[in-house]
Design goal:
Substrate Binding Domain Of Dnak, Chain:A, Domain 2, 143 residues, mainly alpha, 0% strand
Length: 143
């Protein structure tokens, strides 16, 4: 397989990266309650995902602490009952792969178009909030 057909796409991507980096550092002020342009909606969807990801990270830290406590209590009874932390980490890694693939797929609805980032970010936010709820159920059973 030759990579020659990919060369124009790679060059275009390399030209776009500095623009993307500048855009992230110089993000315009956007009122997400009244976003009307696609650029504004993309920015707001990205912010929504970032907020969801921050919540997930906080929940994950609590879940790890709960799993460590569970392992510590189990170790006192039987060493073979230990493994909650490892199971949590394996589950989280697997979930990240699922989330990323699923949200890449969601973007194909507008592949290459200006709406694609919004679709991907919306998917990421949605799945991240669902995972946060799963983690909270682990360390806050019955709430």
């Amino acid at each position: 397989m030759t990579l020659r057909p990919l060369l124009p796409a790679v060059c275009a991507a390399l030209l776009f990266l500095p623009t993307l980096a500048m855009a992230q550092n110089d993000e315009p002020e956007v009122d997400c309650e009244n976003a009307t342009t696609q650029m504004e909606m993309n920015i707001c969807a990205g912010r929504d995902y970032q907020e969801a990801d921050d919540e997930l990270n906080a929940a994950y830290r609590k879940a790890v602490a709960a799993a460590e406590t569970m392992d510590g209590e189990s170790k006192d009874m039987d060493e073979q009952l230990v493994g909650a932390v490892d199971a949590l980490k394996r589950g989280q890694r697997a979930w990240i792969g699922y989330r990323d693939g699923q949200c890449d797929l969601a973007g194909f609805e507008a592949r290459g178009g200006s709406m694609e980032p919004m679709l991907v970010s919306g998917c990421l936010a949605d799945l991240t909030r669902k995972r946060t709820a799963e983690l909270k159920a682990f360390y806050e059973p019955g709430d």
